[in-house]
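ok trying this again, last paste got cut off
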Amino acid sequence: MNLIKRKVLLTILYSAFCFNASATDSVSNKAKGEAPLVHQIFTQLPKTFSLKGNALPFENYRAWLAHAQSNNQDVAFVDRWQKGVNPNAFNTLIQQTSAQWIEYESDGLKISGVMVAPTNAGNKKLPVIIYNRGGNNKHNVGRITVVDRLLPLAAQGYIVLASNYRGSRFSEGEDEFGGKDVNDVVALIDIAKQLPHADSSKIALYGVSRGGMMTWQALRQLKASNDIKTAIVVAGPTDLHYAINRRSDMKALLYKMVPDIENNQENALNTRSAVKWADELNTKVPLLLIHGDADVRVDVAHTKMAAEALTKNKHPHKVVIYKNGDHGLSFYQKEMKAEISSWLSSHM
């Protein structure tokens, strides 16, 4: 097997391992170092919403490491996994939170995702965050993302819901990159309002990269409602015209995923470009925009253009730009998470 094929195979296996929602992972078994399956906060759920298994059935980091080693003999694979998991943070967070793979209905389709919540909330109503992931097609919210992005929020007292959108590996339908898949985000908002332990008056949207675009579009759909308290967009595209002129691969992606774009490019791009309709958004929803100024995937100009449009429409917002920050803000994780936590605590 040549080097390129080997790397592709490792990537596929890694993605599957990080998401793995198999039945064997869903069974609580202390002898295997697994955590309890269902916490009380996951009871009395809406009929269109079901649990599909424990997303993190490991009592501690060493139990997860043993699982990784037993399922994958490739040392490079396990080494890559280790780089994405902080042992001390995981051991603390796994005691404070519970995460479940979920399935829910959107436009008659079965959509997969994850729900995360604190385990020590008692009977208190909790604010909700709808996390909108980046990526497209078969990409999923995997275990690494759950641990790195979602568990810390749950530990702070939030219920977190995240969709894998239609067309992803464990969801039905086709990914339209900001088309009907936006309904999968809006459907989670409706579900959040029905959760018995959720405070339906405190719902936030939090989108990263493509998920930022989805966040803007969901805000547009909900412009006449008061369902959303605040929103956060990290490195999200806001002008698809600018994006395809800057990146030929982005144009190829859109022409592959967006229905009928060949015959209706202008409308297809405008629908996915928040700068074209920022004046339609509900100005009662304050926005936090975060970006790195060295982002080569989604240029920081997207956030600057959005901020200019928001200012023009007197829409409350804050912009945080990290010097030399890349698309994933790799070297600003601590600062970014602190900024998001502070924003949520003051706006929820």
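PB: full thing came through this time. Residues 50-55+96-347 form a domain with the Rossmann fold fold (CATH 3.40.50.1820).
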